[in-house]
From TrEMBL:
InterPro entries reported in the protein's UniProt record: DUF6115 (IPR046118)
Name this polypeptide is given: Uncharacterized protein
Transmembrane regions listed in the UniProt entry: 6-23
Coiled coil: 47-106
Lineage, uppermost ranks: Bacteria, Bacillati, Bacillota, Bacilli, Bacillales
Pfam families: DUF6115
Annotated keywords: Coiled coil, Membrane, Transmembrane, Transmembrane helix
Amino acid sequence: MDQPWVYIVLFGLVFIVYAKIMPKSSAEKGQQSPSIHEIEQTMDHFASELEEQNRVLLQQLAGMKQDYELQASKLDARVEKLEAEQGTLQQEYMKLNVAYEELEQKSLRQTDLTSAPQFVNGTNLQNAIDTNEASLEEQQPEPSSVSMKGRYTELFALYEQGKSTESIAKKLNMTKGEVNLIIQLAKQEEKLHAQ
């Protein structure tokens, strides 16, 4: 009885015997097979249930679509706002750079004017140049007071600890775009000061 065909033959025989007995027992009880009318009613009921389920599903899909469109429009507005903020921050950064360069040039001119009469009468011109350069280095304003790292110390402390921009943004109640923008501007600022 290890062969599967034996099971199939036995199952077939049981099915045939059951089929022979069934019509006799139902005829004895006086039961009739379901009429066409009952089958139609069952099919109509099934079709109406399917229509109801489809209607509910369509309503859910329409609601999901509206939610998606609403979220997409909010995200678009937020991106536009961040782009505008980035533009204003870049303009502000450029203005600060221009002001810094102007201040540096003014301090150079002032030190040249104040130190020039003292050394015109002197004999050692190289000493005058060295002293002038040293005074310029001392008089240069510290960029850290207006630098991005100075303004956002907590952000850069978290960034230097290796935190992701998402976790920094959550901790400081900022958007991820703002955090990325501030970090990029600080890197640009460092490059400019390195030159």
